[in-house]
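Exercise 7. Given the components listed, write out the predicted structure of the assembled complex. Treat all entries as one system.
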Amino acid sequence: MLMNLFKFKGGVKPPTNKTQSTGRPIAAAPLPSHLAVPLHQSIGGTPRPVVAVGDKVLKGQLIGEADGWISAAVHAPTSGTVVAVGPGKQPHPSGLDADCVFIEPDGRDEWIARQPFDLVNATPDAVRHYLQQSGVVGLGGAVFPTHGKLTPAKTVPMQELVINGAECEPFITCDDLLMRERAIDIVRGIGVFRDLLQPQKVLIGIEDNKPEAAAAMRAAVEACGEDFVVVQVPTLYPAGGAKQLIRVLTGKEVPAAKRSTDLGVQCFNVATAYTAWRAIAHGEPVVSRIVTLTGNVRQPGNYEVLIGTPMDELLQLAQPNPDTDGIVMGGPMMGFLVPEPAVPVIKATNCLIAHSERLFPPKAPEMPCIRCGACAQACPHELQPFELYWHARAKDFGKTQQYHIFDCIECGCCSFVCPSRIPLVQYFRFAKSEIWAREKEKKAADEAKTRFEFKQFREEREKAEKAEKLAKAAAAQAAKKAAEAAAAAAAGDAPAVAVAEKPADLTVDPAEAAKKAAIAAAMARAKAQREAAQPKNTDALTPEQARDMAEIEARRVQAGIADAPAEAAAAPTATKTEE
Amino acid sequence: MDILLAIAIMALGAVVLGAALGFASIKFKVEGDPLVEKIEAILPQTQCGQCGYPGCKPYAEAIAKGECDINLCPPGGMEGVQRLADLLGREVKPLEAEEKPKQVAIIDENTCIGCTLCIQACPVDAIVGAAKQMHTIIAQQCTGCELCLPPCPVECIRMEVIPETLDNWKWKFPVIEIKAAPAQAAAEIV
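Answer.
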């Protein structure tokens, strides 16, 4: 079928380096020695852990419950025992920790009872809920929970469903191999998405450097009797970016600060469609994904890998060369060096590249920007990276926003073509995260201001109310007194006024005293409690340690820090730790 | 005669323009001091009083009047001083007090006696609790002002630095790594 294709501006053609890893079929990676499954693996809320240390889990059992609508469940990738739930290193450029569930496999790889989902009788809401419970997220790299994208917009009719099999980034071949080998399941998954979104047509975009994948997908579409159109798009990085692929296939340009759904287009990755179908037809939640192992290795290839597998252990399957000095997660354009080799594979891990200086020679030093404009020609979003760079570098964030920094998809084309080797994308990432942080701070400050102003208003109001009450009481008292005085005057008994005032004075004092006594008692109780909570590390002391502590205490008493020797002896460290 | 006519025309012009100006000054009168609002927008709204004024607004007013320096706000940091200097055309000065990382107050719930003193001290109502009931701090609302520390009779409130997590982590400013030349490195080892 002939179809008019469109072009996006810019783009680059880095060496694809894909043939190395397409030679062999997808192999199943063996069970790793241990698994660390991060709970936060999708955009949105962090799933809550529902297992505890010591629990036995089966493959596919829920271990993290979705928190809110934009969040997806996390499951045990194999059967075994939960050995810990807590912080673990993340495959993230920050190198920070986040909560993981650590599982020791028992080697049996035993599934939970798998029930196919009854698609025929289910409502669309039930299907979306099921996909959320199965942990289906966008596997193209953004890991946005898929069910959140499967609600058709009410205002705009859904015109095109775009399925992304472009896989434009160099080295990565996991989607290519998946389409070659498991096209039928992908097409069935696309069918589910089609039924939920009801688009007018379905377009599957595949770069023309993957003829085998395109042929397999065409055959599968025919075999399933669907009317999806498989389109081969020109190989040009970043044709696999959602907005670029939509542009190429439909000619629609998604405007700034709008989503493709506003134009009646939705986009999914082929691997997402595949996992959705596995969940629906086989009752298998997302516990594994295809990962390309390539780069500085002797046996590059694609593996089906359990989520949570340590990367260094996995990379051994591809036999890395001895000069490997790091692991890049993702491709060479958008990927990053993982902070340490033992971080786990997550749902967003599409490729691991063994890094070596031979393969990626260190960049020559950065030179000043000569404003040649090569970056602006390469930018697929028609931005002006050289201007953005200037303002980001000067930390003039308002200006970067004027130059639409948030339209930048961080594809790396500008850095790739820069003759001065300026790490432009890094400057843009810095500017973006700085702007986000400031916006958050501003919001917090505004909230604090309204709360502070409300508190002041409330205090004023309370004061006014109290004054009013007092005035009323005083008026009543005065009226009463006046009446009494009138009565007394009538009776000719003047000293009655003095008598009436006296008991009021007396009642204040005991009340105050009682209050003070209560506060003192409470403070004493709290102090006793604090002292009772003695640290455990003072239980079994050697004589030297006891002597040292006594000396320190003596010094502190001399310096006037501790209260008194007797107390210090009773609670040697409690006072210090509480301060 | 001519000169009188000229004077009359000029006088008429002055009266008309004066009336126009007078009308504009009433009709388009700006409520409040716009400068104070601009200054206040820069201040971090912790309401901590470390500047010596009872809240961010009084400090902003004092700055606008030129009564005090622009370097008295530690939570705003050097960046705040810089922005105030840019706004007001004053000179950047180093901060009076030390700049601290962002903090949040935490109540030790075992020791709290429920005296409500900290609730009264909190400028942003970020502490919940009732008399003789345990109090606790709403961490998201806490500005880290430390005003709840002094009134506590049992010293059960402590400040904790907000740790860096994946949610608040920021990309760093790109810097060029300076690596020692191989020969130099070898020389150092020897």
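Discussion: Strands of chain B lie at 103-107, 127-128, 136-137, 157-161. The interface with chain A takes residues 40, 43-47, 55-56, 108, 110-113, 115, 123-126, 141, 143, 153-156, 164-166, 168-174, 176 of chain B (CB under 8 Å).
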